[in-house]
Amino acid sequence: MMDIVFGDSACGSLKMAQHYGEGPYKTQVIGMAISNADGNEVAQEEIAAAKREWEQRERLAWKNAKPMGGNPDDVFGFSLGLSIGDISEDIPGEQRQRVLAWLFSIYPDDVGEEAARELFRSAKRTLDTIRGRAQAGESLRLWYSHLPDDMCGLYWFMAQIEDLLREGIQVSVVQLPEWGVDGNGNTVQYTGWGEVHPGDWSHFLAYEKPVPASFCRSCAAHWRELQKENAPLRAVLNDQLVSMPETLYDSFIEKEINAEDEVFQEAMVIGRVLGKYRLGVGDAWVAHRIEGLIRQGKLEPATEASKDSPIYHRKLRKCTTA
User: Fold this and answer.
1) Where are the alpha helices (DSSP H) in 136-262?
2) Which helix (H) or strand (E) is 109 found in, with range?
3) Among candidates 168, 172, 170, 192, which has minimal Cα distance to 180?
4) Which of 216, 225, 254, 287 is packed most tightly, with the most Cβ within 10 A?
């Protein structure tokens, strides 16, 4: 069986979940982002305390985990950002690569451009591999949530395999529930599969269900309608994936900016928009909408980000109007 997810974080977590908890716990290499609300440097004591707390949680999670089993080579991920921008192409091509490059333009040039190219190349290779293995008789299991990119990924993928349905391929889906229970018995609210700890994936196998070819075709048909509309955004409203204007999330961004002082940290605003409202969009989209406010003369840079940081690692100033 091949497992399909629609994000890099989810893909990495699912691969880890296959053998997470097997054998004795081993200290892991981690990357950790810690910041102060005022933008000042974090003290080494705070960093050390955060590492100790993380290590304690990981040891407990490893102990309580139930490995899923399987082979990491059977896990495939697509991270095409299909909820944003032009989706007129049936197979990812130049239009999708341009959208990804635009999204990643908030990052340093060498990082953003290369990331966009690699995501595009990886998606094409992955799709070819999946189709080949499906034609050989392997079944598919798709993991999705109500995140816009997940729903778009699900519908888009069904359109990619629609011709294979006549050959009788087996498809099942696992939809992320709104609430879950982690390995420690704590109730957790999830937004997407990328938030699920590797030790918790096995808990969701109970939600797997096979879907008929008619369901897959319905998803594919819905995707074709969205392609015709080709709106700037796609969002999930009342459990339906619909086309939306680019201004959809602006009120949330402006609300958080209005709550700030005259000069403020742009990264803090973006973090609150993502964490507080759980809209299902990433930092790149919010950053680009803030760039729009700068072009309109409502904001201006008070400082500049370093050349190795995303553009939003800076302070902005509100512009007063006459």
Assistant:
1) 148-160, 213-229, 250-258
2) helix 109-135
3) 192
4) 216
pLDDT in tens, 15-26: 999 999 888 877
Question: In the Cβ-directed half-sphere of 178, how many Cα atoms lie within 13 Å?
Answer: 2
Report the 10 Å Cβ neighbour count for 43.
11
Element containing residue 273 per DSSP (H, E)? helix 266-277
Residue with tokens 């400082």: 303
Angle at 37 between CA 250 and CA 149, to 5 degrees: 40
Report the interhelical angle of 94-103 vs 109-135 (nearest 10°).
140
- Cβ contacts of 4 within 8 Å, gap of 6 or more: 76, 77, 78, 130, 140, 141, 142, 143, 157
Give per-residue pLDDT as tens, 136-195: 999 999 999 999 999 999 999 999 999 998 888 999 999 999 887 766 677 888 889 998
